[in-house]
Specification:
Metallo-beta-lactamase, Chain A; binds zinc ion; 254 residues; alpha/beta; single chain
């Protein structure tokens, strides 16, 4: 199982792209602006899209993806998300005002988009790849995901602030090899991190100290222009897990 990083920034500009991970060729984890780099053939190959939450930086390319592959696929694209997230997509994106409702076209029986509501802890097995929704604590209903090849697992936090349930869940994972976790703000912005339900280095450290296993830790969702200072603050802790910055184009094999 390969996880390719299509986007791992908290914003855009200067070659930055927002959150999207490609699992093998057919599964997207979030659909931020990084999806826009894929070729049309690669877009057509995507069967499943798992969303962490409804914020624009994680869904921005979903409407364009559906429009681009419309009529070129034999089966609908399936979007997996919390029921609350699906409600937001229906009300505010695929509402015929912002974008067409691909759940209704060409008709309700064979739509281009189908929804699959999920709940915390639920596991979907797709060609032996297991995808499980993890707890997260954000300003809107949100999940992270555990991607398990059977050999090794990658945990992705999505957007979250401090969340004990997330770390407790990771401590149940026997084969945790990689952790991709957000750190959106610097320590000076801890108040902003807490009110917007994100992490800063000191809050990240509190979480890492709860972790009983030793995965490779990759930092994502850094605020544009602040990635160097955020990583410096993280590295100054000299934590045993020695987190590194996730990079665009990185491929993690499990
Ligand atoms: Zn968010
Ligand atoms: Zn975000």
């Amino acid at each position: 199982m390969n996880v390719t990083v299509l986007g791992c920034s908290g914003g855009i500009g200067q070659g930055l792209r927002t959150t999207a991970l490609l699992l093998d060729d057919d599964i997207l984890i979030d659909a931020g602006t990084g999806v826009g780099d894929l070729s049309l053939a690669q877009l057509v190959a995507i069967d499943h899209v798992f969303l962490t939450h409804s914020h624009l930086d994680h869904i921005a390319c979903l409407p364009f993806l559906l429009d681009s592959v419309m009529g070129k696929r034999a089966a609908p694209v399936t979007v997996y998300a919390l029921p609350e997230t699906i409600d937001v997509l229906k009300a505010h994106i695929f509402n015929w005002k912002i974008w067409p409702d691909f759940n209704q076209i060409p008709d309700q029986e064979q739509p281009f988009l189908q929804y699959r509501p999920l709940s915390l802890g639920q596991t979907f097995t797709l060609n032996q790849r297991m995808i499980t929704a993890l707890p997260a604590h954000h300003s809107v209903p949100a999940v992270g995901y555990l991607l398990d090849s059977g050999v090794g697992s990658l945990a992705f936090s999505g957007d979250t602030t401090s969340c004990d349930a997330f770390w407790q869940q990771l401590n149940q994972v026997k084969n945790l090899a990689h952790l991709v976790i957000e750190t959106s703000f610097s320590n000076a912005e801890i108040a902003l991190a807490q009110v917007s339900r994100h992490l800063c280095p000191s809050l990240l450290l509190e979480g890492l100290n709860q972790l009983q296993s030793k995965p490779q830790v990759h930092i994502t969702h850094l605020k544009p222009g602040e990635s160097e200072s955020i990583m410096q603050e993280i590295n100054a802790y000299r934590h045993a897990l020695n987190p590194s910055q996730l990079w665009h184009g990185q491929i993690i094999t499990l």
